[in-house]
């Protein structure tokens, strides 16, 4: 399974936070790109860092799509990749908390939120055709520890 945590969008208040999270998210994502069984081939988690967006709408809930993409650019003749069996959702931090957390501790806070959010995978395990959500969560914790992050699991 291909796994990716991204903080693709930020604003001027969160740009330093996004930069701080980039390497951690990349390292954890790389560690968890392994087979966990089931039908999900891709899992994307968006860590949303624009407060005004979070105030206008809730984060995207977990959704599992059987096919994403799949068209061809007819002008250039280049195929666009087809992603099959994609799990995708977004999470938003408590902006008061993340903006007041020292930059050196913000990664621990963000990864704690990501870990907590993965409980949705346990809830949706049956829909995901046997995806080993418990093992994925254990590997997430182990990866965080290996990279020196201390996350809250309560």
List the helices and strands and how they pair.
Elements: E1 2-6, H1 15-31, E2 42-47, H2 51-56, E3 63-69, E4 72-73, E5 78-79, E6 82-91, H3 95-100, H4 106-117, H5 119-123, H6 133-146
Parallel strand pairs: 1-2, 2-6
Antiparallel strand pairs: 3-6, 4-5
Helix pairs in contact: 1-4
Notable characteristics:
154 residues; 6 helices; globular; two-stranded antiparallel sheet; 6 strands; alpha/beta; 4-stranded mixed beta sheet
Biggest sheet statistics: 4 strands, mixed
Q: What is the tally of beta strands?
A: 6
Strand order of the largest sheet: 1-2-6-3
Distance between the termini: 27 Å
Q: Please bin the fraction of helical residues.
A: 25-40%
Strand content: 15-25%
* SSE order: EHEHEEEEHHHH
Q: How many DSSP helices?
A: 6
Outline the low-pLDDT stretches: none
- Shape field: globular
User: Mean of residue pLDDT?
Assistant: 91
Radius of gyration: 16 Å
Class per helix and strand makeup: alpha/beta
Architecture overview:
Helix 1 crosses helix 4. The chain is built from six helices and six strands. The two termini are 27 Å apart. Helix 1 links the parallel strand 1 and strand 2. The strands form two sheets. Strands 1-2-6-3 form a four-stranded mixed beta sheet. The model has no long low-confidence stretch (mean pLDDT 91). The protein is of the alpha/beta class.
Question: TL;DR?
Answer:
The protein is an alpha/beta fold. It has helices spanning 15-31, 51-56, 95-100, 106-117, 119-123, 133-146, and strands spanning 2-6, 42-47, 63-69, 72-73, 78-79, 82-91.
